[in-house]
Amino acid sequence: MVNLAQLFAQLESPQLKDRLLALVALREVSPVDAFPLLKKALGDESLQIRSMAVFGLGVKPTPECFPLLVNLLESDPDYGIRADAAGALGYLLDVRGVEPLIHALYEDTEWLVRFSAAVSLGNLGDERAYDVLMQALSAPEPVIQQAVIAALGEIGAVAAVERLLTFVQAEDWLVRQRLAEALGNLPSPKTRAALQYLAKDNHPQVRSAADYSLSRLVR
């Protein structure tokens, strides 16, 4: 049985290894018992510790986790922590996260935060994200395009198909792969033709994704 007092003591250790081991041990602790330790770790001087604590708030949720993660997403000075908070909000699967994630995707200046926000909006599967995701398709970073295309597929945005088809010849093969995967969730008159085109792509993973999506449409 995990000794919570011992874990608190470990989080006070000057040795980074001890503090890391304390957070790893929280896997065996209930969310309610883990929360005070995770909250304490958020104030650690080590970004690695803070990042692990943010992740823990997402996978061991309590009612206190949501507002804490939103605050981190909106105000933490470190963009890595903001990105972690965006990702953790996606783990919570709480639709209250849609609005702060939309704001992050639209307003944050760091691509990693916007990437995490797009991924989490896809996880939440809420149609309220449609407009901001459509705007984000114009982002210059291929990694943002990948996340947004996947998210539009996950929310079932059939209305986005026409715009998504402009990526069938995207230079980045990962963009084309995400497109092939997303189209499997977006049946429309043009979807099958696009997938048949992608099934002949010069990259094997794009072809594989397109073949799988075509099989899903048949079902």
What is the number of domains?
A: 2
Overall pLDDT, averaged? Answer: 96
Report strand %.
under 5%
CATH class annotation of the largest domain = Mainly Alpha
The main sheet comes to: none
Q: CATH topology of the largest domain, what is it called?
A: Leucine-rich Repeat Variant
**CATH H-tier superfamily of the largest domain:** Leucine-rich Repeat Variant
Low-confidence stretches: none
Straight-line distance between termini? 48 Å
- What series of H and E elements makes up the topology? HHHHHHHHHHHHHH
Q: Count of DSSP helices?
A: 14
Describe the model:
The protein has 219 residues and is an all-alpha fold. It folds into two domains: 62 residues, Leucine-rich Repeat Variant (Alpha Horseshoe); 154 residues, Alpha Horseshoe (Leucine-rich Repeat Variant), CATH 1.25.10. The chain contains 14 helices and no strands. Helix 1 runs parallel beside helix 3, helix 6 packs parallel to helix 8 and helix 9 runs antiparallel to helix 10. The longest helix has 15 residues. The chain is elongated. It starts with a helix and ends with a helix. Keywords: Antenna complex, Lyase, Phycobilisome. This is PBS lyase HEAT-like repeat protein. One of its GO terms (molecular function) is lyase activity.
Question: What's the layout of helices and strands?
Answer:
Blueprint: H1 4-11, H2 16-25, H3 31-41, H4 47-59, H5 65-75, H6 79-92, H7 98-107, H8 111-124, H9 130-136, H10 142-154, H11 161-164, H12 173-183, H13 191-198, H14 204-218
